[in-house]
Design brief:
It is a single chain. The chain is an alpha/beta fold and about 425 residues long. The chain contains twelve helices and 25 strands. α9 runs parallel beside α11. The longest helix has 14 residues. It is globular, with a radius of gyration of 21 Å. The termini are close together. The chain binds shikimate-3-phosphate. The site of shikimate-3-phosphate has 10 residues, from α5.
């Protein structure tokens, strides 16, 4: 894919797809509930389709009607053993959440994935699950994982790694486990699983205490199916927000965007940088915060962000780094260790590719430093993405200012935002 520079700004309404995290959960939780759920606006991207296919392979009946997905839940304990291995492509969320869920089923499964997913750490989910007596085998803490379904024991688990995927895997395991499982999250991460489980009438109690969260869940309580309207994805919106901010004469409006306070770090960071962003029509749907977002071209300044905000915007650092490259002063983003274990080593690729674009930047430990300049001299216009969708989209946006950039392996964008290219081009982008 080749992304070119633009001169007339990014203007109009962008159709942002459904939220990826909520879409995965909108398949998993209805599938193990009692009754029928209608799901509107689900994201139809490769990652989410892998989750859907997994549940179909485990006997869940799914129909499509008027663009809605109709899921006939099987209850907590009636999934059936799939015929072969479950292939999850690039999707870390599917892998971590399903590992938890499947470890408390009554059959064995094998989870596999693509090259990138097969390099990502899975001990972070299998280790805490083993405290519940889960039996999960892998040769080196990576996929393929062989999960022996069994009766788990409830226990107390303290989570030190800030990861909604780990927390959610444990919550799904505890749903089918007798007694009370207690999970302490030492750093608060996105809470879509807790929100959805509450609305599906799980016996779950969530308390916040300073920067920690205590979740108590009593298992073996059947869930009650509900309909879900998936809001649009703030992480996908981020590419349009930054495109509008850094290009003159831009005005973009994004509708129905999820701005859950455990996900909205990007909006807080950009506000600090002087971005002209308005959140309009704030409302609540399915217990998730939703709003429309209006963005105008802005003169950004740099900012310093501490590690405490990283968990609220962990997926947004590639595009934030692009925004910071066009600010009037330097930026420092601290505490980005988790970026090293995403779809790629994102910290490495942010630095590598910004440097190709002529941006002076560095990492020290896990902190990222960006020293913007008025003019960039491109050293190489071939962007290395390692099949990471967010690196690919971030550098498509970078190119709107300094292009053309050739984005290698850009088909990864289909994992989260299949219409990205046509939407950006509709608003003034020039991607071919
Ligand atoms: C996700 C959690 C985050 C995020 C990922 C989606 C989720 O991962 O990066 O894109 O849906 O729970 P971690 O839990 O590994 O931080």
């Amino acid at each position: 894919m080749l992304s070119n520079s633009i001169t007339n700004g990014i203007n109009g309404y962008a159709n942002i797809p459904g939220d990826k995290s909520i879409s995965h959960r909108s398949i998993i939780i209805p599938s193990i509930s009692n009754g029928v759920s209608e799901i509107s606006n689900i994201l139809k991207s490769e990652d989410v389709l892998h989750t859907l296919n997994a549940f179909k392979a485990m006997g869940v009946k799914v129909e499509e009607n008027n663009n809605k997905l109709i899921i006939f839940g099987k209850g907590l304990n009636s999934l059936k053993k799939p015929e072969g291995k479950i292939y999850l492509g690039n999707s870390g969320t599917s892998a971590r959440l399903l590992t938890g869920l499947l470890s408390s089923q009554k059959f064995d499964t094998v989870l596999t994935g693509d090259k990138s997913l097969s390099n990502r750490p899975m001990a972070r989910i299998s280790d805490p699950l083993s405290k519940m007596n889960a039996r999960i085998n892998s040769s080196n803490g990576r996929l393929p994982l062989t999960i022996e379904g069994s009766e788990l024991k409830c226990t107390k688990i303290d989570l030190d790694i800030p990861s909604a995927q780990i927390k959610s895997g444990l919550l799904l395991a505890s749903l089918n486990t007798k007694g009370e499982t207690i999970i302490t999250e030492n750093k608060i991460t996105r809470d879509h699983t807790e929100i959805m489980l509450q609305s599906f009438e799980a016996k779950i109690d969530v308390r916040k205490n300073n920067n920690k969260k205590l979740i108590k869940i009593i298992g073996k309580k059947e869930l009650v199916s509900k309909n879900i309207d998936v809001p649009n994805d703030l992480s996908s919106s981020a590419f349009f927000i930054v495109s509008a901010l850094i290009n003159n004469n831009s005005k973009v409006v994004l509708k129905n965007i999820n701005n859950n306070p455990t996900r909205n770090g990007l909006l807080i960071a950009l506000e600090k940088m002087g971005a002209k962003i308005k959140l309009l029509n704030k409302r609540i749907s399915n217990n998730e915060n939703i709003c429309d977002i209006e963005v105008l071209s802005s003169n950004l300044n740099g900012c310093e962000l501490g590690p405490e905000i990283a968990d609220l915007m962990i997926d947004e650092y590639p595009i934030l780094a692009v925004a910071a490259s066009f600010a009037s002063t330097p930026s420092i983003f601290r505490g980005l260790k988790e970026l090293r274990v995403k779809e790629s080593d994102r910290l490495k690729l942010i630095i590598l590719n910004l440097q190709k674009c002529g941006v002076n930047c560095k990492t020290e430990n896990d902190d990222l430093f960006i020293y913007p300049s008025k003019n960039y001299e491109i050293n190489s216009n071939i962007i290395q993405t390692d099949f990471d969708h967010r690196i690919a989209m971030a550098f498509c946006v970078m190119a709107t200012k300094i292009g053309p950039l050739k984005i290698n392996d850009s088909e990864s964008i289909n994992t989260s935002f299949p219409n990205f290219k046509s939407e950006l081009n509709k608003l003034g982008g020039r991607i071919i």
